[in-house]
Automatic annotation (TrEMBL):
Chain's role: Catalyzes the conversion of N-acetyl-diaminopimelate to diaminopimelate and acetate.
UniProtKB keywords: Amino-acid biosynthesis, Diaminopimelate biosynthesis, Hydrolase, Lysine biosynthesis, Manganese, Metal-binding
Cofactor note: The Mn(2+) ion enhances activity.
Coiled coil ranges: none
Gene3D superfamilies named in the record: 3.30.70.360, Zn peptidases
Cofactor(s) needed: Mn(2+)
Residues given in the record as Mn(2+) binding sites: 94, 96, 128, 154, 347
Protein name: N-acetyldiaminopimelate deacetylase
Signal peptide: none
GO molecular function terms listed in the Swiss-Prot or TrEMBL record: metal ion binding; N-acetyldiaminopimelate deacetylase activity
Entry EC number(s): 3.5.1.47
Active site: 69, 128 (proton acceptor)
PANTHER family with a match to the protein in the record: N-ACETYLDIAMINOPIMELATE DEACETYLASE, PEPTIDASE M20 FAMILY MEMBER
Length: 375
């Protein structure tokens, strides 16, 4: 498959970002493309807005799974691309347009050049939230074709184009979303003593949340509590009766996650007392850590060292999250970072990954899967 074709697929997908479980146009686009491939060995099944494509092997010993996520983010794009998002306020700012394009590049090749093993291509909705991997993993559709090995990648703006950054064991953190609603008493701006101001309460809460990582987590462990959004109040001269904080928690272990959550609950209880308000905490979607199977990952790294030595970089773990962690909890496999060297990072309104990385990923993964299917 030519680079120009892959690039135009990526650009078409880039224009239609959709949020989790709303990937209707994306699913249609993928299904139409998949229908244009030789069908003899393909079995295509939809699951919600996702798609599973089974490619029948020639002399199967196992099924090798490859997963790409499909959803975009609620971000107003500011790249200035001629092929910018056509969906107001939504953007592929986490590279899922790249992930799907690479999966289609692989599928196109293997539909025409089947290997001995069966392959399963998983186009998964809702990675950014509320999480599609776990319900997809548990679905009858997936369980019927369940792979013996799972592979996925994530673009990485910080690495040179084509770098494959990977390690055995922990790659991505445990994550939990965090939503805290505060309810107090509104009033006139000139009469603060008659009200309970939830803008002030939220401000204290945000500052106190920062003390959890600084003062309650072992400095030799790591955790993150980020508040990404605050809302509250109605107007400049009205004391706010309500406020809402939206954030995320990241930890390197499940036990640290429990500890951070206990501390958040204690801090929130303190705010309720000191500001005479009611607070509710909702942890939203929780993702299990991405833990790369040591033997399978080392085998992949040894393959790269031999066949593509300049691509391999042994990286450290990161505080990003990925619901692919649920798949790796049940199925041996690995995830890796794909270098797409660009100025702005993931979740940035000007994320402009270098498209040359697509071809590198497709050709490297073709050679790895062809080799693996002979083992
Ligand atoms: C690779 C990446 O950026 N993943 C997301 C996963 C989102 C998890 C969830 N919605 C949360 O915010 O906790 C990330 O933000 O790391």
């Amino acid at each position: 498959m030519k680079m120009e074709e892959l690039r135009s697929i990526r650009r078409e997908l880039h224009q239609i970002p959709e949020l989790g479980f709303q990937e209707f146009k994306t699913q249609r686009y993928l299904l139409d493309y998949i229908a244009s491939l030789p069908q003899e060995r393909l079995r295509i099944v939809t699951w919600k807005t996702g798609i599973l494509v089974f490619v029948e092997g020639r002399k199967p010993k196992r099924t090798i799974g490859y997963r790409a996520d499909m959803d975009g983010l609620p971000i107003q794009e500011k790249t200035g691309y001629a092929f910018s998002s056509q969906h107001e306020g939504k953007m592929h700012a986490c590279g899922h347009d790249f992930h799907m394009t690479i999966a289609l590049g692989l599928l196109t090749y293997f539909a025409k050049h089947p290997v001995n093993d069966h392959l399963l291509f998983v186009f998964q909705p809702a990675e950014e939230g509320p999480g599609g991997a776990l319900p997809l993993l548990q679905s009858e559709e997936f369980q019927r074709m369940k792979p013996d090995l799972m592979i996925a990648l994530h673009i990485a703006p910080e690495y040179p184009v084509g770098t494959i950054a990977v390690k055995e064991g922990l790659l991505f953190a445990n994550t939990s979303e965090l939503f805290i609603d505060l309810k107090g008493k509104g009033g006139h701006a000139a009469y603060p003593h008659t009200a309970n101001d939830m803008v002030v309460a939220a401000s204290h809460l945000i500052v106190q949340l920062q003390s959890i990582v600084a003062r309650n987590v072992d400095p030799l462990d790591s955790a993150v509590v980020t508040v990404g959004k605050i809302t509250g109040g109605t107007r400049q001269n009205i004391i706010a009766a309500d406020s809402r904080i939206e954030g995320t928690i990241r930890t390197l272990s499940a036990s640290s996650m429990d500890h951070v959550k206990q501390r958040i609950e204690a801090v929130v209880a303190g705010i309720e007392t000191s500001f005479a308000c009611q607070a509710t905490i909702d942890y939203g979607a929780n993702y299990y850590q991405v833990y790369n199977h040591p033997a399978v990952t080392n085998e992949f790294m040894a393959f790269l060292k031999k066949e593509h030595p300049s691509a391999l970089y042994e990286c450290k773990e990161a505080m990003t999250g990925e619901d692919f962690g649920y798949m790796l909890k049940e199925i041996p496999g690995f995830m890796f970072w794909l270098g797409v060297e660009c100025e702005h990072g993931l979740h940035h309104e000007q994320l402009m990954p270098n498209e040359a990385a697509i071809e590198v990923a497709v050709s490297t993964l073709i050679s790895y899967i062809e080799w693996k299917a002979l083992q």
